[in-house]
Amino acid sequence: MGAKMQQLAGIDRVIHEPARLIIVSLLAAVKEADFQYLHLATELTKGNLSVHLTKLEEAGYVAVEKTFKGKYPLTLCRLTDAGQQALAGYKQAMKAVLS
Amino acid sequence: MASSSFDPQFSDPEIAAKRLIQKAHNRDGLPEMAVGVSLLLFAGLLAVESHLNKGTTAFKMVSLVAVFAIVAICSALPWMVKKLRQTYLIGIEGFVEPKPVPRSRIAVALLIAFGIAAIAALLAGEAHFRFPDQWMIAGTGLFMALIWSFGGRFRRFVLSGIAMGAVGVLLSLSPRPLDFNFAVLFSFAGLLTAISGVVVLLRFLRLVAEREGAHGR
Question: How far is B216 from chain A (nearest CA, A)?
Fold first, then answer.
């Protein structure tokens, strides 16, 4: 039990927050997605999504690039290698704690 | 937030994410409309074929066109959907570049569905079918049902799939020629999916309009 509690204390808090976990999981399943797509898929408000994306970007888990597709401005987001590793580590840690 | 469709406490986040992406992929109905239109085109060619005498030049020409049409349509469909979305819907539904699905996984899924449909059709009609015509039409209906239901996974796909399978089995009892029965089966499946796609697109556009109205834009 003690070891599990220690593992739980060491959980990555950036990813552990449910909204950020949704964003990271979604980005893990695609090559890249833009802000509008994430807004509709996660059903988070635009402000909320923006705040969480900034936190994930600051942690180095998500790369954000502003670009154009035709005449439409896009804010493209993709999971970085660090983000992928963090998600894999988080899943492993949660499995170990809950098993 | 969609807590009912994404619950990290009780499900693997990766599985939940894939489900959300699949939901988003099908929310505008375009993939269904594309599949529906291609099935209707194919059904049209089969209907023309069924009215021609086998071995004639016209029959051979139509058969050749049918083969090329299927290959061309299957290759162009994903591109067409992507292009339509990028031209008309990108501002509404956003942009996503999915990870490519491994071809081996698609091949295995098709083989399993084919095997199950073939065995089911064989068992269902063992006593009654004039092998192989009736078996083929029932098997195709069941194959389409499995692919559509498990490929889409949402309720409307499962219901459409069940209807396709049922029509396939019903047509296997019909005394009409195989070409004609196939044309009916594909017409039914094409109409069903195209109509379902149009309804989903209209609902999606209405939902977006309502949402934007609520945000005062």
Answer: 14
Q: What percent of chain B lies above the pLDDT cut of 70?
A: 85
Per residue in A67-91, pLDDT tens? 887 777 888 999 999 999 999 888 8
DSSP assignment of A8-75, as one string? HHTS-HHHHSHHHHHHHHHHHTEEEEEHHHHHHHH---HHHHHHHHHHHHHTTSEEEEEEEETTEEEE
The minimum CA-CA distance between B138 and chain A, rounded to whole Å, is: 36
Is the model's pLDDT at B217 over the cut of 70? no
Q: Please tell me the CATH code under which domain A2-98 is placed.
A: 1.10.10.10
* Residues in chain A within 8 Å Cβ distance of B16: 22, 25
Where are chain A's structural domains?
2-98
What is the C-alpha to C-alpha distance for residues B215 and B217, in angstroms, rounded to an integer?
6
Q: Do B93 and A37 touch (CB under 8 A)?
A: yes
Query: From the CA of B23, how many Å to the nearest CA of chain A?
Result: 8
Rounded to the nearest 10°, the torsion over CA B131, B132, B136, B142 is 30
pLDDT-derived band at B4 (thresholds 50, 70, 90) equals very low
- Contact yes or no for B20 and A42 at CB 8 A: yes
Specify the pLDDT at position B12: 67
Residues of A in contact with B14 (CB under 8 A): 25, 28-29, 91
